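Q: I have 150 residues here and want to know how they pack in 3D. Can you give me a structure?
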Amino acid sequence: MKTMCRHLLLAVWVIVFLVAPAWAQGKAKPITLTARVVDAICLLPSGLKGESHRECAIGCDKAGVRMYLLDEKANVMYTVMADAPFKDPNVLLRDHLERVVTVKGDLHTGPGGLKVVQVKEVQKAAAAQPCAPKAKQPCAAKQPCAPKKY
């Protein structure tokens, strides 16, 4: 009887540890992400990205290549998916190819840690303004955009 209980307990633990991660994969978390819309066809083998690569990315999009979101600060690449089957996953990203955007959606985690964003909303990211007026600082070294005095 003890042996049977041990086997049953072991079976329950195996099921919990093997099946629970699969259940967790179906759970999506809301996410707001600032990232560059890139095509992996040119980014991964050649490192091509940015405004100078935009026309090529447009061509890849027309050929049906799926776009990705590259969080350049965290160095994380996300694949994108539409909000329903048989829909183009690039449709909300198309106007922003090779540009930095803020995306709202749901983050799904797949096998192997694959990060997939179900895109719901895309906006042009606020431009970084390193020279925006801030509190006055007496040290010119802390103000790289201040006019230089010779």
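Q: Anything worth noting?
A: The mean pLDDT is 78. Residues 25-124 form a domain with the OB fold (Dihydrolipoamide Acetyltransferase, E2P) fold (CATH 2.40.50).
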